[in-house]
């Protein structure tokens, strides 16, 4: 049996990569460019909102960074699958931006999106985010960082696992931050060094099983001499289950630790062994904690 996203009973998934037994999917196809002014940018088409909103420099790419879903995205945010949508970004200053997006809330990654976006039930997912970028001074030059806060709305009728009534207009908030703390070399384009990240998300318990969530961790690029492109990462994620869903999730939380090492074998091929420890998988009071070993291979053409 393959190890899919929710193996070992995890509520948010230990493997953010697999899409199931299907053929090739076109997950994104969109236009991005200026919108009437150099300070405004528009992206329109089939878009992966998880790659735009709630971003992180060190915990946002399941292909090269963490593989546990809770260390890739915030599980309190009901992002639609890669969907038809539009995102407008306003660069207010060089370091401050405002971004808003609308996407088909009922999208299916296997389809173009026109069937679900244009049928009689028009449910759209909305997101609004603002953030600032920073540069801390160091002996080897500026160390970049980003601090984001966002708000989302999902109008679809929903209820948590023990709910007896449907509720519409689900609304939540989130924040995501990352900051480089140590830079090895003075070259501006050199990214070797230590960076840290943190996330927090909240969703109301009437409509969601996971109501509070946080994650944090670190990344070091070029830890060993002669391995400048290799990356070591370590992270921790912790999600709280809603009290109203106690019969489905007897324990009030699930937590995960993950450590990975991404070794750049060639410029186009990397190998990433990783290890995860999942405590209280699925909030169960009968399932044992899980230790998961993995090996990811990534080729870029």
Salient structural properties:
301 residues, mainly beta, 1% helix, 46% strand, 1 helix
Describe this structure in words.
The chain has 301 residues and is mainly β. Helices cover 1% and strands 46% of the residues. The protein contains 1 helix and 13 strands. It has a 13-stranded antiparallel sheet with strand order 1-2-3-4-5-6-7-8-9-10-11-12-13. A hairpin with a 4-residue loop joins strand 3 and strand 4 (96-104).
Termini separation: 30 Å
CA radius of gyration is 20 Å
- The count of DSSP E runs of length 2 or more, i.e. the number of strands, is 13
Shape annotation: globular
Tell me the major beta sheet: 13 strands, antiparallel
Query: What is the percent of helical residues?
Result: under 10%
Topology:
Blueprint: E1 29-34, E2 40-47, E3 83-91, E4 96-104, H1 114-117, E5 124-136, E6 143-154, E7 170-183, E8 193-202, E9 210-221, E10 231-241, E11 253-266, E12 269-279, E13 290-299
Antiparallel strand pairs: 1-2, 2-3, 3-4, 4-5, 5-6, 6-7, 7-8, 8-9, 9-10, 10-11, 11-12, 12-13
Structure summary:
With 301 residues, this protein is mainly beta. The protein has one helix and 13 strands, in the order E-E-E-E-H-E-E-E-E-E-E-E-E-E.
